[in-house]
Design a protein that fits this description.
Elements: E1 10-15, E2 18-23, E3 39-45, H1 52-55, E4 59-61, E5 70-72, E6 85-96, E7 101-104, E8 114-120, H2 123-126, H3 144-147
Antiparallel strand pairs: 1-2, 1-8, 2-7, 3-6, 3-8, 4-5, 6-7
Amino acid sequence: MEKLYVKPIGEISADEEGMYIQLKKEFLPCLKGLEGFGAIQVIWWFSDFDEEEYRSVLECPSPYKNGPEIMGIFATRSPIRPNPVAITASDITGIEWENGKIHLAYIDANPGTPVLDLKPYTPSIDRIEYPQVPGWCSHWPDSVESSGDFNWEAEFNRAAIPISE
């Protein structure tokens, strides 16, 4: 029997009100104690990029206009990586406890994306007061809240085609 290392706890969904996580019913008890937290870390699977050809890509042309010409995948936030795992910190805008819907202010995942785990966001563990970043991205906003008005379009190359060895 093959050992199952990860199984989704739910998936990203969307409706007219916005994005939310729909938990599987068996995981509803996991919500106990989440009240009072304003944000969560959502660990999710880049399911649209779970192909062997993508998992073998180790470096790529820079997706960032001011970045080095070639970058290792671990220096990017690309969905193309050896294990297509993602993490997004997101504000909770509401929880429907009885049916396991966690409404989010934002998440950079598509509807239908598998959610692997959730962790409460706590500044004492999850926030780095003065993170060090390379000079080419040091002008980026300091927080999710301040990034809404930032011109992200000016920061990315249109098509960074992945290359592999």
